[in-house]
Protein backbone atom coordinates (compact mmCIF):
# COMPACT_ATOMS: atom_id res chain seq x y z
CA UNK A 1 0.00 0.00 0.00
CA UNK A 2 1.33 3.43 -0.95
CA UNK A 3 1.73 6.04 1.79
CA UNK A 4 1.91 9.79 2.31
CA UNK A 5 4.38 11.21 4.83
CA UNK A 6 2.80 13.40 7.51
CA UNK A 7 4.38 16.60 8.82
CA UNK A 8 5.89 14.70 11.78
CA UNK A 9 7.41 11.98 9.59
CA UNK A 10 4.78 9.29 10.26
CA UNK A 11 3.61 7.53 7.09
CA UNK A 12 -0.10 6.99 6.50
CA UNK A 13 -1.55 4.56 3.91
CA UNK A 14 -3.27 6.59 1.21
CA UNK A 15 -6.38 4.41 1.25
CA UNK A 16 -8.23 3.70 4.46
CA UNK A 17 -11.16 1.49 5.37
CA UNK A 18 -13.87 3.28 7.35
CA UNK A 19 -16.27 1.49 9.66
CA UNK A 20 -18.86 4.26 10.11
CA UNK A 21 -22.38 2.78 10.15
CA UNK A 22 -21.14 -0.81 9.95
CA UNK A 23 -23.15 -2.71 12.60
CA UNK A 24 -21.18 -4.13 15.50
CA UNK A 25 -22.00 -7.71 14.49
CA UNK A 26 -20.52 -7.15 11.02
CA UNK A 27 -17.51 -5.00 11.91
CA UNK A 28 -15.00 -7.69 12.86
CA UNK A 29 -15.51 -9.70 9.68
CA UNK A 30 -15.54 -6.57 7.51
CA UNK A 31 -12.16 -5.51 8.92
CA UNK A 32 -10.72 -9.01 8.50
CA UNK A 33 -11.94 -9.08 4.89
CA UNK A 34 -10.45 -5.65 4.27
CA UNK A 35 -7.10 -6.78 5.69
CA UNK A 36 -7.20 -9.84 3.42
CA UNK A 37 -7.70 -7.77 0.27
CA UNK A 38 -4.83 -5.43 1.22
CA UNK A 39 -6.10 -2.62 3.45
CA UNK A 40 -3.75 -1.62 6.27
CA UNK A 41 -5.43 1.61 7.38
CA UNK A 42 -8.60 1.48 9.50
CA UNK A 43 -10.71 4.38 10.71
CA UNK A 44 -13.16 4.14 13.61
CA UNK A 45 -14.43 6.53 16.27
CA UNK A 46 -15.74 6.51 19.81
CA UNK A 47 -19.15 7.53 18.46
CA UNK A 48 -19.30 4.60 16.00
CA UNK A 49 -19.64 2.14 18.90
CA UNK A 50 -17.54 -0.51 17.15
CA UNK A 51 -14.01 0.14 18.43
CA UNK A 52 -14.06 -3.16 20.31
CA UNK A 53 -14.93 -5.13 17.18
CA UNK A 54 -12.16 -3.41 15.23
CA UNK A 55 -9.81 -4.46 18.03
CA UNK A 56 -11.07 -8.04 17.85
CA UNK A 57 -10.15 -8.17 14.15
CA UNK A 58 -6.69 -6.70 14.81
CA UNK A 59 -6.11 -9.29 17.52
CA UNK A 60 -7.09 -12.13 15.19
CA UNK A 61 -5.20 -11.15 12.04
CA UNK A 62 -1.72 -12.51 11.34
CA UNK A 63 -0.63 -9.10 10.02
CA UNK A 64 1.85 -7.56 12.52
CA UNK A 65 0.48 -4.63 14.51
CA UNK A 66 3.24 -2.34 13.23
CA UNK A 67 1.99 -2.88 9.68
CA UNK A 68 -1.47 -1.57 10.54
CA UNK A 69 -2.52 2.07 10.86
CA UNK A 70 -5.39 2.50 13.33
CA UNK A 71 -7.39 5.70 13.81
CA UNK A 72 -10.06 6.66 16.30
CA UNK A 73 -11.79 9.95 17.02
CA UNK A 74 -12.68 11.63 20.32
CA UNK A 75 -16.40 12.30 20.70
CA UNK A 76 -17.77 15.64 21.91
CA UNK A 77 -18.96 14.31 25.27
CA UNK A 78 -15.32 13.37 25.99
CA UNK A 79 -13.93 16.84 25.27
CA UNK A 80 -11.84 18.63 27.86
CA UNK A 81 -8.26 17.78 28.84
CA UNK A 82 -8.85 15.09 31.46
CA UNK A 83 -11.95 13.64 29.77
CA UNK A 84 -10.07 13.26 26.51
CA UNK A 85 -7.13 11.49 28.13
CA UNK A 86 -9.48 9.13 29.95
CA UNK A 87 -11.50 8.42 26.81
CA UNK A 88 -8.42 7.51 24.79
CA UNK A 89 -7.31 5.15 27.55
CA UNK A 90 -10.71 3.46 27.26
CA UNK A 91 -10.44 3.32 23.45
CA UNK A 92 -7.05 1.63 23.76
CA UNK A 93 -8.50 -0.89 26.18
CA UNK A 94 -11.47 -1.60 23.91
CA UNK A 95 -9.17 -2.20 20.94
CA UNK A 96 -6.60 -4.09 23.05
CA UNK A 97 -3.83 -1.81 21.78
CA UNK A 98 -0.75 -0.24 23.36
CA UNK A 99 -0.86 2.77 21.05
CA UNK A 100 -2.94 4.39 18.31
CA UNK A 101 -1.52 5.56 15.01
CA UNK A 102 -3.86 8.53 14.75
CA UNK A 103 -6.40 10.23 17.02
CA UNK A 104 -8.62 13.06 15.83
CA UNK A 105 -10.99 15.49 17.50
CA UNK A 106 -14.24 14.47 15.82
CA UNK A 107 -16.01 17.86 15.69
CA UNK A 108 -14.89 21.52 15.86
CA UNK A 109 -17.13 22.46 18.81
CA UNK A 110 -16.82 22.53 22.60
CA UNK A 111 -13.52 22.48 24.50
CA UNK A 112 -11.37 21.95 21.43
CA UNK A 113 -8.24 23.48 22.96
CA UNK A 114 -8.32 21.40 26.12
CA UNK A 115 -8.82 18.21 24.14
CA UNK A 116 -6.15 19.07 21.62
CA UNK A 117 -3.66 19.71 24.44
CA UNK A 118 -4.46 16.20 25.71
CA UNK A 119 -3.67 14.76 22.27
CA UNK A 120 -0.36 16.64 22.19
CA UNK A 121 0.62 15.29 25.59
CA UNK A 122 -0.41 11.72 24.75
CA UNK A 123 1.63 11.96 21.57
CA UNK A 124 4.66 13.01 23.64
CA UNK A 125 4.03 10.00 25.89
CA UNK A 126 4.08 7.66 22.90
CA UNK A 127 0.42 6.63 23.12
CA UNK A 128 -0.43 8.29 19.81
CA UNK A 129 1.82 8.49 16.75
CA UNK A 130 -0.12 11.23 14.93
CA UNK A 131 -2.81 13.68 15.99
CA UNK A 132 -5.31 15.84 14.21
CA UNK A 133 -8.79 17.22 13.84
CA UNK A 134 -11.91 16.49 11.85
CA UNK A 135 -14.49 18.74 10.20
CA UNK A 136 -12.43 21.89 10.84
CA UNK A 137 -12.93 24.66 8.29
CA UNK A 138 -10.12 26.98 7.20
CA UNK A 139 -10.69 29.41 10.09
CA UNK A 140 -10.88 26.73 12.78
CA UNK A 141 -7.78 25.02 11.44
CA UNK A 142 -5.86 28.32 11.36
CA UNK A 143 -7.04 29.03 14.92
CA UNK A 144 -5.76 25.79 16.40
CA UNK A 145 -2.47 26.00 14.50
CA UNK A 146 -1.83 29.57 15.62
CA UNK A 147 -2.53 29.03 19.32
CA UNK A 148 -1.12 25.53 19.92
CA UNK A 149 2.50 24.39 20.01
CA UNK A 150 1.94 21.38 17.72
CA UNK A 151 0.56 21.61 14.20
CA UNK A 152 -2.06 18.91 13.53
CA UNK A 153 -0.93 16.15 11.23
CA UNK A 154 -4.42 15.55 9.76
CA UNK A 155 -7.70 17.33 9.06
CA UNK A 156 -10.38 14.81 8.11
CA UNK A 157 -13.21 16.51 6.21
CA UNK A 158 -15.91 15.75 3.69
CA UNK A 159 -14.36 15.70 0.20
CA UNK A 160 -16.00 14.27 -2.92
CA UNK A 161 -16.63 15.34 -6.53
CA UNK A 162 -19.61 17.43 -5.43
CA UNK A 163 -17.69 19.14 -2.61
CA UNK A 164 -14.08 19.34 -3.78
CA UNK A 165 -12.54 21.64 -1.13
CA UNK A 166 -9.66 22.99 -3.19
CA UNK A 167 -9.30 26.09 -0.99
CA UNK A 168 -9.23 23.91 2.12
CA UNK A 169 -6.48 21.80 0.54
CA UNK A 170 -4.31 24.80 -0.27
CA UNK A 171 -4.90 26.31 3.18
CA UNK A 172 -3.96 23.06 4.92
CA UNK A 173 -0.77 22.72 2.89
CA UNK A 174 0.26 26.31 3.51
CA UNK A 175 -0.27 26.13 7.29
CA UNK A 176 2.28 23.50 8.19
CA UNK A 177 1.62 20.84 5.56
CA UNK A 178 -1.49 19.45 7.24
CA UNK A 179 -2.63 16.30 5.46
CA UNK A 180 -6.26 16.25 4.30
CA UNK A 181 -8.22 13.05 4.65
CA UNK A 182 -11.56 12.58 2.87
CA UNK A 183 -14.61 11.13 4.55
CA UNK A 184 -17.59 10.31 2.32
CA UNK A 185 -15.53 10.30 -0.91
CA UNK A 186 -18.56 8.76 -2.63
CA UNK A 187 -20.99 11.24 -0.98
CA UNK A 188 -22.70 8.11 0.41
CA UNK A 189 -24.18 7.53 -3.04
CA UNK A 190 -26.01 10.84 -3.18
CA UNK A 191 -26.96 12.49 -6.49
CA UNK A 192 -26.49 9.24 -8.42
CA UNK A 193 -22.72 9.46 -8.06
CA UNK A 194 -22.12 5.83 -9.07
CA UNK A 195 -24.05 6.38 -12.30
CA UNK A 196 -22.69 9.87 -12.99
CA UNK A 197 -22.09 10.28 -16.72
CA UNK A 198 -18.78 12.13 -16.44
CA UNK A 199 -17.30 9.64 -13.97
CA UNK A 200 -18.64 6.70 -15.99
CA UNK A 201 -17.15 7.93 -19.26
CA UNK A 202 -13.77 8.53 -17.62
CA UNK A 203 -13.91 5.10 -16.01
CA UNK A 204 -14.68 3.31 -19.26
CA UNK A 205 -11.44 4.64 -20.77
CA UNK A 206 -9.44 2.77 -18.14
CA UNK A 207 -11.73 -0.16 -17.42
CA UNK A 208 -12.54 1.32 -14.02
CA UNK A 209 -15.69 2.12 -12.06
CA UNK A 210 -16.79 5.63 -11.05
CA UNK A 211 -15.75 4.76 -7.47
CA UNK A 212 -12.24 3.89 -8.61
CA UNK A 213 -12.04 7.12 -10.61
CA UNK A 214 -12.99 9.11 -7.50
CA UNK A 215 -10.39 7.41 -5.31
CA UNK A 216 -7.72 7.87 -7.96
CA UNK A 217 -8.69 11.56 -8.30
CA UNK A 218 -8.27 12.04 -4.55
CA UNK A 219 -4.95 10.18 -4.51
CA UNK A 220 -3.58 12.35 -7.33
CA UNK A 221 -4.61 15.46 -5.36
CA UNK A 222 -2.54 14.18 -2.43
CA UNK A 223 -5.59 13.40 -0.29
CA UNK A 224 -6.03 10.29 1.87
CA UNK A 225 -9.44 8.69 1.32
CA UNK A 226 -11.66 6.49 3.47
CA UNK A 227 -14.01 4.05 1.74
CA UNK A 228 -16.49 1.68 3.36
CA UNK A 229 -18.14 -1.55 2.23
CA UNK A 230 -19.11 -4.86 3.79
CA UNK A 231 -18.83 -6.55 0.38
CA UNK A 232 -15.44 -8.13 -0.25
CA UNK A 233 -15.57 -7.70 -4.04
CA UNK A 234 -16.24 -3.98 -3.57
CA UNK A 235 -13.32 -3.75 -1.14
CA UNK A 236 -11.05 -5.30 -3.78
CA UNK A 237 -12.30 -2.83 -6.36
CA UNK A 238 -11.81 0.19 -4.12
CA UNK A 239 -8.19 -0.68 -3.43
CA UNK A 240 -7.34 -1.31 -7.11
CA UNK A 241 -6.51 2.24 -8.22
CA UNK A 242 -2.76 2.23 -8.74
CA UNK A 243 -2.57 0.94 -12.33
CA UNK A 244 -3.96 3.98 -14.15
CA UNK A 245 -3.63 7.78 -14.11
CA UNK A 246 -6.04 10.59 -14.87
CA UNK A 247 -5.31 13.15 -17.56
CA UNK A 248 -5.62 16.89 -17.04
CA UNK A 249 -8.76 16.73 -19.19
CA UNK A 250 -10.22 14.05 -16.91
CA UNK A 251 -9.58 16.26 -13.90
CA UNK A 252 -11.12 19.28 -15.60
CA UNK A 253 -14.25 17.24 -16.28
CA UNK A 254 -14.44 16.10 -12.66
CA UNK A 255 -14.01 19.74 -11.65
CA UNK A 256 -17.33 20.58 -13.32
CA UNK A 257 -19.15 18.37 -10.79
CA UNK A 258 -18.51 20.85 -7.95
CA UNK A 259 -21.77 22.02 -6.35
CA UNK A 260 -22.49 24.71 -3.77
CA UNK A 261 -21.27 22.82 -0.72
CA UNK A 262 -21.65 19.90 1.66
CA UNK A 263 -23.85 16.94 0.79
CA UNK A 264 -24.62 16.46 4.49
CA UNK A 265 -24.39 19.47 6.81
CA UNK A 266 -22.58 22.79 7.04
CA UNK A 267 -20.20 23.05 9.99
CA UNK A 268 -20.28 26.83 9.60
CA UNK A 269 -24.04 26.91 10.31
CA UNK A 270 -25.10 27.54 13.95
CA UNK A 271 -27.89 24.99 13.39
CA UNK A 272 -25.19 22.33 13.07
CA UNK A 273 -23.89 23.27 16.51
CA UNK A 274 -27.44 22.95 17.84
CA UNK A 275 -27.74 19.53 16.20
CA UNK A 276 -24.60 18.19 17.87
CA UNK A 277 -25.52 19.73 21.23
CA UNK A 278 -28.86 17.89 21.06
CA UNK A 279 -27.16 14.67 19.98
CA UNK A 280 -24.73 14.75 22.90
CA UNK A 281 -27.58 15.32 25.37
CA UNK A 282 -29.65 12.51 23.84
CA UNK A 283 -26.78 10.06 24.22
CA UNK A 284 -26.35 10.99 27.89
CA UNK A 285 -29.90 9.86 28.67
Write the layout of secondary structure elements.
Blueprint: E1 3-5, E2 11-13, E3 15-18, H1 24-37, E4 41-43, H2 51-60, E5 69-74, H3 81-95, E6 100-105, H4 112-124, E7 128-134, H5 138-146, E8 154-158, H6 166-174, E9 179-183, H7 197-206, H8 210-220, E10 224-227, H9 232-239, H10 248-255, H11 270-284
Helix pairs in contact: 1-2, 1-9, 2-3, 3-4, 7-8
Written account of the structure:
The protein is built from eleven helices and ten strands. By secondary structure, it is of the alpha/beta class. It is globular, with a radius of gyration of 18 Å. Helix content is 43%, strand content 16%. The protein has a single domain, classed as TIM Barrel (Alpha-Beta Barrel), CATH 3.20.20.100. The model has no long low-confidence stretch (mean pLDDT 95). Helix 2 crosses helix 3 and helix 7 packs across helix 8. It starts with a strand and ends with a helix. An eight-stranded parallel barrel has the order 3-4-5-6-7-8-9-10, surrounded by five helices. It has a two-stranded antiparallel sheet with strand order 1-2.
